[in-house]
Design a protein that fits this description.
Number of strands: 5
Distance between the termini: 30 Å
Strand order of the largest sheet: 1-2-3
Oligomer: single chain
CATH superfamily of the largest domain: HUPs
CATH architecture of the largest domain: 3-Layer(aba) Sandwich
Order of helices and strands: EHEHHEHHHHHEHEHHHHH
CATH class of the largest domain: Alpha Beta
Bound molecules: tryptophan, iron/sulfur cluster
Radius of gyration: 22 Å
Length: 333
């Protein structure tokens, strides 16, 4: 029997190439090898944005559209929304009871989020009980499917460690080996930086969206940082110090193209503006199919909603089995 994986993403609205290259592309490959569950973590969005919910439903939909456009196949993957599976909330309660307070306080990602929250909202902002519970809720997501593994980026590994600890503790307390200790499945996908050389992110305004048009992409690529020491086309270039454009070439170009760009740049035979124009057209070619599919789903929202309902149902079947077992183990029913 094939192993089960589960992973989720917070609904931050339209996704960017960092999400695509760093996470989704990996999921698209893994879905053929594993029994795969992918969900939008809309409850997790509430941990920091409980007072900004007006766009939440739409953001959830946009995330699923980006996934489908990127090649997640609803025929083989189960695509669902966290809040549509209420069993997760129940499991969250049981797991919360067995989780020592200092385990969640130690969570490094949580500490980072708290820091960001404080700088954004000013001194008085409080960390909510819900945000403290982030790692427990995430464990509930994963253990709800009793997953073998969780494909995530390196930034989420600490969370998977807590999940393993919580699973082990639950098993010890209730004298069972029911829950698996899920492993993090790290991807070897290329990480892509933002147009300014920093981490790509919506709030940094340095991202290229999956949903951007070819024209928007070209315009953004023209702003990408290059070798700062170069003023003219004939200046000898240093591709390895070309902080963004050459890195993008390495992700989107063929080996042959990369070699040619490097060579021409070093010899001063290639101007940065031309180089980026070519780069943009290469990127647009690679992304064309995804964007076509995105346009299709955007105009067939009922189809997207049906896909989610089907996924919700399938996820709830698995969740129902797990929660029944948990109630029995805890001796509730
Ligand atoms: N914390 C993850 C993120 O910010 C999202 C997430 C929530 C998740 N629950 C999960 C990822 C369960 C993997 C498994 O990206
Ligand atoms: Fe970068 Fe291309 Fe300019 Fe060289 S020519 S510095 S690779 S943008």
């Amino acid at each position: 029997m094939s192993q089960l994986i589960v992973s989720g993403m917070r609904p931050t609205g339209k996704l960017h190439l960092g999400h695509y290259l760093g996470v989704i592309q990996n999921w698209v490959e893994l879905q053929h090898k594993y029994d795969s569950y992918f969900f939008v973590a809309d409850w997790h969005a509430l941990t920091t944005k409980y007072d900004k919910t007006e766009d939440l439903k739409n953001d959830v939909l946009n995330v699923v559209i980006d996934w489908l456009a990127s090649g997640l196949d609803p025929e083989i993957s189960t695509i669902y929304v966290q809040s549509h599976v209420p069993e997760i909330a129940e499991l969250n309660i049981y797991l919360g009871m067995v989780t020592p307070q200092n385990w969640v306080e130690r969570d490094p990602t949580l500490k980072d989020m708290a820091k960001i929250l404080r700088t954004k909202e000013g001194q008085n902002s409080q960390i909510s009980y819900g945000l403290m519970g982030y790692p427990v809720l995430m464990s509930a997501d994963i253990m709800m499917m009793n997953a073998d593994a969780v494909p995530v980026g390196i930034d989420q590994v600490a969370h998977i460690e807590i999940t393993r600890d919580i699973a082990r503790r639950f098993n010890n307390i209730y004298n069972t080996d029911f829950f698996k200790e899920p492993k993090a499945l790290l991807n070897n996908c290329s990480l892509i930086c933002g147009l300014d050389g920093n981490k790509m992110g919506k709030s940094f305004h340095n991202d290229i969206k999956i949903s951007d048009t070819a024209e928007e992409t070209a315009k953004k690529v023209m702003t990408a940082i290059t070798d700062r020491s170069r003023m003219r086309k004939t200046d000898l270039g240093h591709p390895d110090e070309c902080e963004v454009a050459f890195k993008y070439w390495q992700v989107f170009g063929s080996d042959e193209q990369i070699t040619r760009v490097r060579c021409e740049c070093e010899k001063g035979e290639r101007g940065c503006a031309d180089c980026k124009r070519q780069l943009a057209s290469e990127m647009n070619e690679k992304l064309a199919e995804i964007r076509e599919r995105r346009v299709y789903y955007e105009s067939h929202l009922d189809e997207v909603k049906d896909i989610i309902s089907e996924g919700d149902k399938k996820a709830r079947v698995r969740a129902g089995e797990v929660i029944s077992k948990v109630r029995e183990l805890v001796r509730m029913y």
